[in-house]
Amino acid sequence: MVLCYESSWVVEKVQQLQWSDEVIEHIKQEAEKKMKECLDSLVLRLNKVRTGRATPEFVSNLKVSYYNSSTALSQLANISVEGSKTIIITPWDKGAVAAIEKAILTSNLGINPQTAGQVIRITLPPLSAERREELARIVREDGENACVTIRNARRHANQQLKDSLKAKNISKDEEHCAQGLVQKLTDDYVARINKLVECKEHDVRNI
Question: Which residues are 91's β-sheet partners?
């Protein structure tokens, strides 16, 4: 009878540990998903901040209203670079030329397209020192906002862990260990954001 009781206790304990692991893993994965989405969003925003060098990414995510649908430019045309100052856009459907021109002109990118037939060219004007400083400030602000979002994700995860402890789904030691994992994620993503911002700010000031 004692052996039967001990066996049941062991099974219950194993099941509890497995459940605790699942709870912690779910919270960790949810936090990491939010952090990755934040990082990906920052990359897209920084790609839109121009430097003195032409890159396809500068316009690839520009939204074009085509056949009553908002579509990324990269899905409507081939985008290439000629030299260091010129972006060449070649729509796959010549009927999209006017819509692409309109999207460029009404964007806040500060560029003017020149069209010859089905080819659209964008020549980037040189950046003044004042404009470079303004863009560098925008890059820093985007980075700071991204870091705030990362830390909000950490706070939310820690609150979920606290609630799980209160509900007795995890132990105090497990909560402490999980908080360490969440902090490690936070440090990693903040470091990656800072590196992105540092590189982009350098390009904005020097290229």
Answer: 77
Helix (H, G, I), strand (E, B) or coil at 27: helix
Q: Residue 168's domain spans which residues?
A: 23-48+128-206
Helices (H), the chain: 2-48, 57-60, 97-106, 129-166, 172-206
17 is a domain residue: no
pLDDT of the chain, 207 residues: tens digit per residue: 444 444 443 444 444 546 588 889 999 999 999 999 999 999 989 988 888 788 888 889 889 998 888 999 999 999 999 988 899 999 999 889 999 999 999 887 778 899 998 999 999 888 889 989 999 999 999 999 999 999 999 999 999 999 999 988 888 999 999 999 999 999 999 999 999 999 999 999 987
Q: pTM for this one?
A: 0.76
| Contact between residue 56 and residue 87 where contact means Cβ atoms under 8 Å apart | yes
Helix axes 2-48, 129-166, angle to 10 degrees: 170
∠78-85-195 over CA atoms, to 5°?
A: 85
| 62 and 118 part of one domain | yes
Alpha carbon dihedral 101, 103, 108, 114, in 10-degree steps, equals -10
3-state secondary structure of 52: coil
Residue type, 98: A
Of 79, 49, 81, 75, nearest in space to 63 by CA: 75
Q: Which amino acid is at 49?
A: V
Residues in the chain: 207
